[in-house]
Design a protein that fits this description.
By secondary structure, this protein is mainly alpha-helical. The chain is 73% helix and 0% strand. Helix 7 packs parallel to helix 9 and helix 8 crosses helix 10.
Length: 223
């Protein structure tokens, strides 16, 4: 029957776990992710960068992001943010853009032991004007991470040290000032991603200051 073929294609296209094709894909993805996690700890930098790029592509799929969390691939990626190879860090940050965008998965970047958010801030600050694509991808990951799209554990900004947020805001200030007159794609990309992150932080920090001022006013009235 032609109808069966049609339905199988639909299952395949939607990536849902129902039906035979769904089950086969499900097992295949799990196996691939297991293998790729092994490659992430390979001594060869090129192999590690390739695996991170593969995770960047795979992590566009919701179900695969959940698999990645289950196999701790997401933790392995966060740990690679301070790798000494530029290609590895760039590929890892790209994959983390997708992980950070998922409210169910972004917690790995807010884990105190792994320090993913701090590492991303360092990536942006180190890249600066010397490596515009790196600074831009770091900004994208941080923007997705800090944007509160109904996070199950409350606003992600609250989980980050104020000092870290302040430092990032100041760095972005300087970076955006310096890039404003620049031409080329790299500049445009950084202005868009960095500008969005700068606005997000600005609103949050202003609301924090407002809250503090309100507390101080209350204190003064009591005297």
């Amino acid at each position: 029957g032609g109808s069966n073929g049609g339905r199988a294609l639909h299952v395949h296209a939607s990536g849902s776990g129902s039906g035979r094709v769904g089950q086969v894909l499900f097992s295949a993805h799990r196996a691939v992710i297991g293998d790729l996690v092994g490659v992430l700890v390979h001594p060869n930098d090129e192999a590690v960068a390739e695996a991170a790029r593969a995770f960047g592509n795979l992590s566009r799929d919701t179900q695969i992001r959940r698999f990645m969390a289950g196999s701790r691939a997401d933790e392995a990626l966060v740990m690679l943010l301070d790798h000494n190879s530029r290609d590895v860090v760039f590929a890892v940050a790209g994959a983390l853009v997708n992980i950070a965008a998922d409210p169910e998965c972004k917690e790995v970047l807010l884990d105190e032991d792994l320090q993913g958010c701090d590492k991303l801030v360092s990536v942006v600050r180190r890249a600066g004007l010397r490596d515009l694509p790196m600074a831009a991808v770091g900004c994208k990951a941080l923007y997705n991470l800090l944007l509160d799209l109904n996070s199950p554990n409350g606003p992600p900004m609250m989980a980050v040290e104020d000092e870290t947020l302040g430092m990032l805001y100041t760095s972005l200030d300087e970076l955006l000032d310096a890039t404003e007159g620049g031409g080329g794609d790299g500049y445009q990309d950084l202005l868009a991603a960095g500008g969005a992150l700068h606005n997000l932080l600005g609103h949050f920090l202003a609301s924090q200051t407002q809250t503090l001022n309100n507390y101080e006013d209350l204190g003064e009235e009591k005297n």
